[in-house]
Amino acid sequence: MIFRKANVPTSTTGDLDGRDRGRRGRRIKDDVPTWPEEESAGELTDVPSADGARARSSKDHGPYDASEVDSVHDPLAAGRVDLGGLQVRAIEGIELRLQVDEASQAVVAALFVRGDAALELRAFAAPRSSGLWDEIRREIAVETTRRGGVVTETTGPFGTELKVVVPTRTPDGQQVTQASRIVGVDGPRWFLRGTLIGRAAADPEAAGPLLAAMSEIVVIRGKAPMAPRDMIPLQIPEAARMVAPGAGQQ
User: Fold this and answer.
1) Secondary structure (DSSP) of 78-139
2) Is 250 domain-assigned?
3) What is the pTM of this model?
4) What is the pLDDT of residue 56?
5) What is the pLDDT of residue 27?
6) Domain limits for position 41
7) Which SS3 state, helix, strand or coil, does residue 19 take?
8) Per the domain annotation, does 55 fall within a domain?
């Protein structure tokens, strides 16, 4: 795996991870290490649903908890990339990027990128007795309204999701709108949030392959005590760590 520099789009909402960054005094840098998959796990062949995501029964619909996956006998295990708190499949045509905290150099998010469409993924600890998605949706709605934006609640392949449009300014001062589509999955003591950005925010065809990749994720919450909303730690894969600093950068 080879590192190269790339500009990574970020979420347009000021929700829980924004507050966490403020509390920890962290800033996210624009240039982050990225790498394409070296081996493909193959094309996704399941029949797409209406919005382009893979149609799956409720019994086998990921993302999965670590307890639901037998890594020893799982035929797909060899095709997964180990990011510590997340295991993701290497899928042909989808590039994996990592968003890195500028101050601590910690990995805080993973991104699936396909052309001009992207899906940002962040995992958080959650209470044992309840999920976070209902509460977070309300917070996103309040924050979006405060910023003069519009939020719409809809139903997607992972259940209730949000479509968010907020006003923003370009570097040259022009007033524009920025859209995102946010999906959430409550798991056992974890919460996984995916934010579709770029063309994927409004185009179901562009979002479909990214959501299909999200449905293959395995969340590794671990047994260590964590406060609700703490980010589940991610890490750079060992294969990428072995690359000499600066190698392959553009």
Assistant:
1) GGEEE-BSEEEE--TT-EEEEEEBTTT--EEEEEEEETTEEEEEEEEE--SSS-SHHHHHHH
2) no
3) 0.75
4) 35
5) 35
6) 4-241
7) helix
8) yes
